Amino acid sequence: MTGDRRQFKDPMTHIWFALGIVAGAAGVAAAVIFIIYGDRIIAGDSGCLFNQITGLYCPGCGGTRAFYHAVHLHFIKSFLCHPIVMYSLAAYFVFMINTLLVKFTRKLGFPEYPVSVTVYIGVGILLGQWVIRNILVIFWGITVL
Q1: 145 within domain boundaries
Q2: Which residues are within 8 A (CB) of 31 and not within 5 positions of it... i.e. 6 or more apart?
Q3: How confident is the prediction for the chain on average, in pLDDT?
Q4: For residues 73 and 66, what is the distance between their CA atoms, to the nearest angstrom?
Q5: Number of domains in the chain
Q6: pTM above 0.85, yes or no
Q7: How far is CA 46 from CA 25, 91, 93, 102, in A?
Q8: Which of 86, 94, 90, 47 is nearest to 69 (CA)?
């Protein structure tokens, strides 16, 4: 039966899938914590040391609030706090479902799934929002979080 299985174009897909299972379990645990204690976690001032020292945003600023809103199904608020959270959730589910389909069906899924491109797009989103937010702060004094 092993001969019937399709092979992935990217040899790292099996490793990414195993890491995805671990990340999914950690994500579920984090979601439960944010459902129970989320209001206390996001209350108060920014916990970002970079922001406190420089007055500028770090690449991750807004990620905690974005995760909080995603867990509470406020997807637009989540995206506005930090777009990488919604992108990561979507990319995660598409990758995991596609990998399962390729592993366990003969015709469904895409063995050529572009794992590296997906990661590069995520890095671009992360850095892009960081630059844009800091341009708004530096030149116009606009803070978004």
Answers
A1: no
A2: 71
A3: 90
A4: 10
A5: 1
A6: yes
A7: 27, 27, 30, 43
A8: 86
* Residue-level length of the chain: 145
Q: Which residue has the higher pLDDT, 81 or 8?
A: 81
Domain residues for the domain of 29 are 2-140
Q: Is residue 49 part of a domain?
A: yes
The two structure tokens encoding residue 114: 């572009």
CA distance 29 to 67: 13
C-beta of residue 20 within 8 angstroms of C-beta of residue 92: yes
Other residues' Cβ atoms within 10 Å of the Cβ of residue 22: 9
For 53-70, give one letter per residue: b (16+ CB within 10 A) or e: eeeebbbebbbbbbbbbb
